[in-house]
Design a protein that fits this description.
It is built from seven helices and seven strands. By secondary structure, the protein is of the alpha+beta class. It folds into two domains: about 60 residues; about 160 residues, 2-Layer Sandwich (Alpha-Beta Plaits), CATH 3.30.70. Helix 4 runs antiparallel to helix 5. The longest helix is centred in the N-terminal third of the chain and has 57 residues. It is elongated. The C terminus is likely disordered.
């Protein structure tokens, strides 16, 4: 009878060399996985950084677009509506006035002697003067009115829905009084006067261009008339009196 030969536990174990090779392979696999994990984390970090950069760029572009839209309709120096926006508001006011049989007025303003200020004191002072004039002008108008820097030292004011011509004259006088006090700029006290012309829809014109033309002509007539009554209109500057 054949007897089954029993193997000892020691004989069932893998050879030592095989065990060493398997362990080395396992270590290699672990290192490979660790390298892959590290590389993946680096890619994720790089993508996150790219995302942060893109978000910053989008935010900057959004601000730039908003600024461009703002200054597309605003005067960059004074912040007042520019000609494009002003013309649109006049057209809308005229359309409403035509429907409701109302009147619309334009006041055309020109600073007397502004060129002399620019030439003698510099454009920096002239720019600051225009900014202060714009601030005073806006402060004495209704919220429904619109002041525009038309160009250079010229401003135009839109007055919708007023009672009568006397009201427009009263507003012009108020503007003249508000702009009269001296302006303190860089230690100098500067005084300017303003010439104002008026045009009323529909009496003086029914289109934006007609109202601008009539009010501009009236402004020059006002300037000439005031020159006949007083010395030639010129800004008086007390450059010797410094703010202490």
């Amino acid at each position: 009878m054949s007897q089954t030969r029993m193997q000892s536990p020691a004989s069932s174990r893998a050879p030592r060399g095989a065990r060493s090779g398997a362990a080395a392979a396992a270590v290699t696999d672990d290192e490979s996985q660790a390298d892959e994990l590290h590389a993946a984390r680096q890619k994720i970090d790089a993508l996150r950084e790219q995302e942060r950069v893109l978000k910053r760029q989008v935010a900057l572009l959004t601000l730039a677009v908003a600024k461009a839209k703002k200054f597309a309709n605003r005067d960059e120096l004074t912040g007042l509506p520019n000609r494009r926006l002003f013309a649109d508001r006049v057209d809308q006011a005229v359309a409403r006035a035509a429907r409701h049989r109302q009147r619309v007025a334009l006041l055309f303003l020109d600073l007397d002697g502004f060129k002399h200020i620019n030439d003698s004191m510099g454009h920096g002072v002239g720019d600051k003067l225009l900014q202060q004039v714009a601030a005073r002008l806006t402060a004495c108008l209704r919220t429904s009115d619109t002041a525009c820097r038309y160009g250079g030292d010229e401003f135009v004011v839109l007055l919708p829905e007023f009672e009568g011509r006397e009201c427009v004259i009263a507003v012009a006088q108020k503007i003249r009084a508000r702009l009269a006090p001296p302006y303190l700029i860089d230690g100098a006290s500067i005084e300017v006067t303003v010439s104002i012309g008026m045009a009323v829809y529909p009496v003086d014109g029914e289109a934006y261009g007609d109202l601008i033309r009539v009010s501009d002509l009236a402004m020059y007539q006002d300037k000439a008339r005031r020159r006949c009554l007083t010395e030639p209109s010129r800004a008086r500057m007390e450059t010797g009196s410094r703010v202490r």
